[in-house]
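Regression report. Comparing outputs from two consecutive submissions.

Submission 1:
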Amino acid sequence: MRSVPSLFPAAVAMVFTSSSLSYALDTKSFNKIKSEYVNKEELSIITNEDDVESFVFLQKFPLEGSMGYLFHTEVLVCPRNNFSGDDQKMLDDKVTSLTDYVEIEESWWSDKTTNCVELGYGGASCAQECCSVPFGAEQTNFPLNARRAVISNADTATKSLYLYGRGDFDGVKAWHNACDSKCWSKWSGYDYNPITNNCNTFTSTILACVYGLSQKKPHLTVSDMVTVKCDELCKSTSFEDVFEDA
């Protein structure tokens, strides 16, 4: 079987102009984390000791200058109790009938200021584990309707939103599960690769290896060419120790 990189030029040739292909392979500008987010971790922020049932969403953005052929995704984790009873029922009904994911209409989410946790990844000049997975106040207090991403070149005006299911814990615990020990990758800024270990690989890892949900995604074309594999869900032993030592 040919490796993923060897398939990449043939795949993109069908859809890209030479200028957009050049943009796609320019790792100096491709999916860089906003500078103010690098190494931004507020580790004093921890979830409740009791697990919080949450709805798990994916937000998708085209990349600026890519002619709609390259995409950035992030996971949004929103505690169930942050929604009204009617909204909970609507989302529960969709979860019951969904296969992999379902798109949520913009007319529904555009006025939802429901607080969520944003989990996103990009490249940066840093070597620490998850230094390129921001975890500051803007990520842990993310309104569902916010048109914002952790990278600087996402076309946030054209956000789309997809529901993937429910999780038994909130997004803060999910961050710890992915970042306190290796979970597919160490997710440092230097680990970023635009083909084999990008933002969409991270999204797959959160969905499949942290929450046990589908990692299939909505028409990302060549932006999402890696299937992550996890023998078991990623869990943070150090995170659990926080409560044992309290």
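Submission 2:
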Amino acid sequence: MGVEGCAKIIKYLLFVFNLLFFISGCGILALGITLNVNNGGFATLLPSVPFLNAANLCIAVGVIVMVVGFVGCCGAIKENGCMLLIFFFLLLLIFVLEIVAGILGFVYQSQVSDYVESDLITGLQKYDTEKGLQSAWDRLQSDLQCCGVDGAADWAMNSSFPATQFPDSCCREYAVGCGKTVGYTGAWKDGCAEILLTYLEDNIYYVGAVCIAIGIFELFGIALSMFLYCQVKNDSQVV
């Protein structure tokens, strides 16, 4: 015997909630893949702060949301107390982890710039030894129109680039071999560290806003799932 009355309404509300939750997970996953294709190289440059990469974060969140949404849909439509309880605790765990992540992000915010500069210097020095880093640096400098960590002169830290030389991706007017001939005046003036920090901060604000909205949505789901679980449990005891 299924639930009746108000509980039946809650059942279908929870099903719709989880269906939307699952669809939003698909959307977040698609966004993460798109960001990873377009800007995935940036994460290669920042191994110390991978959590700042919006693409990786969206992919992870998207997969988790899809799984939780699927469990919730099955639990609601089947009126399965076990699945509803699993859904409740998964959703509660995600909500708690979001709060913890927000607190940690706020606490360690001041250290991000140090990590970014340190990782960029390390990547610059290994530019010609690792293909992934080389590709990431070239994409970073071309896309953000910057050069080096704090400026073009930073490339002197790499023995492959004598004074006034740098990768072609630094050139304001790109041409094959331009990094060896145009000198500092032909390179992008701004260093990449400051521009990259601004880029990451903009992404973090967007991610933060989405997390707040999802958190409110999650509280609604937590309340619905617990109400339906209690109703299903009561009905089973009556039977």
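Expected: both submissions complete independently.
Actual: both completed, but the second showed a warning that disappeared on reload.
Relevant detail on submission 2: The CA atoms of residues 133 and 186 lie 23 Å apart.
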